[in-house]
């Protein structure tokens, strides 16, 4: 089982929740809080933990995947950070 991911969301902010989730996970990856190969919660689990719609988490994960910060072995399995990008 994956450890809960601690993210703080500001529901009164103008920044969309998906963007806040994306930034929180990106920061955790880039700062080393999430090590390469660490498992992220599934969309469903993180959505339940944060009290947001699954689609909100899906959007955040897809943006992280597009930036090559995370990878998924299958759509239904948790995603794993790849670590900071090599430039």
UniProtKB/TrEMBL annotation:
InterPro entries xref list: HTH_trans_reg/aminotransferase, Tscrpt_reg_HTH_GntR, WH-like_DNA-bd_sf, WH_DNA-bd_sf
PROSITE patterns: HTH_GNTR
Keywords in alphabetical order: DNA-binding, Pyridoxal phosphate, Transcription, Transcription regulation
CDD domains: WHTH_GntR (cd07377)
Domain (HTH gntR-type) ranges: 15-83
GO molecular function terms noted in the UniProt entry: DNA binding; DNA-binding transcription factor activity
Highest taxon listed in the record's lineage: Bacteria
Name of this chain's protein: Regulatory protein, gntR family
Organism: Bradyrhizobium yuanmingense
Lineage, uppermost ranks: Bacteria, Pseudomonadati, Pseudomonadota, Alphaproteobacteria, Hyphomicrobiales
């Amino acid at each position: 089982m994956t450890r809960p991911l601690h993210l703080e969301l500001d529901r009164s902010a103008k920044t969309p929740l998906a963007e806040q989730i994306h930034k929180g996970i990106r920061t955790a990856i880039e700062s080393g809080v999430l090590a390469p190969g660490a498992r992220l919660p599934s969309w469903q689990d993180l959505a339940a933990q944060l009290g947001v719609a699954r689609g909100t988490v899906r959007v955040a994960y897809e943006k992280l995947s597009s930036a090559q910060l995370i990878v998924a072995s299958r759509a239904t399995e948790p995603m794993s950070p790849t670590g900071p990008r090599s430039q």
